[in-house]
Design a protein that fits this description.
The protein is an alpha/beta fold and 262 residues long. Helix content is 30%, strand content 24%. It has 2 domains: 150 residues, HAD superfamily/HAD-like (Rossmann fold), CATH 3.40.50.1000; 100 residues, 2-Layer Sandwich (Hypothetical Protein, Haloacid Dehalogenase-like Hydrolase, Chain: A, domain 2), CATH 3.30.1240. The protein contains 8 helices and 14 strands. The protein is globular.
Amino acid sequence: MYSGAVFFDMDGTLVDGRDGILSITPYTREAILQLRKNGYLAGLATGRAVCYLPDQANLFDCFITSNGAYAQAAGKVACNCFVEEQTLLCVRAYLEERGINYLLELQDGCYVYDIHEYWYNQMMDRFGWDRSRFFPLTAQSPQKANKLMVMYDDMEKLYCFQRDFGDRFDITEQPINQSADVGIHGISKGYGVKKVMELLGIPREKTWAIGDADNDLEMLKTVGCGVAMGRHTQAVAQAAKLITGTVREEGAARALQTLHLI
């Protein structure tokens, strides 16, 4: 039985490509280990899929990935949601017709429409993601997805996509890159967190979450106490009860200390 649970975003919270911090710092790593020693579940809640989590993911007791479409804890799958088949066919045809690159994200691999496209490769380099888990999308590839990512050479393409598909997907821009997460409408990190809380019987008042971007918003609202990193969006600031430092300032570890969890 856990004393409570803390859910950590990854990019912008534990690592930050903007500052060249591509792995969890030793200081924050020790803080997470101490949190677990104190009886708390440490959960990783990320837009990434399981297949391209960093090696340091072994720090965590549970994973909420693909912005909440998939979650696992205590050796059990709490949720595993897929984009509806006809909707996926429709959105793929739309993106291809308009010259918007995309990838289909699954937990065991990601499948890229144009693996040579500039903005896709810039994203991969900036975040330092494991390219061995990203494959060219072919007719033999799995034709399903927990979520999509899109990459575009013109912001107007994104705005039109948001207008035309905003009723079917939650489309969230990624900071510092011309790319966006495209998730099932209504499925969020908050959804995945709730499924883990239900699976493990952890009450809301014993839960915390730390994040920085709009895809963390529902997670911060779902838990008992939401924490914003020092670099955060306006919406995250409004949802948070505490603001901590940046990744460079060891913000996640400092928040655990402020909250007296370690």
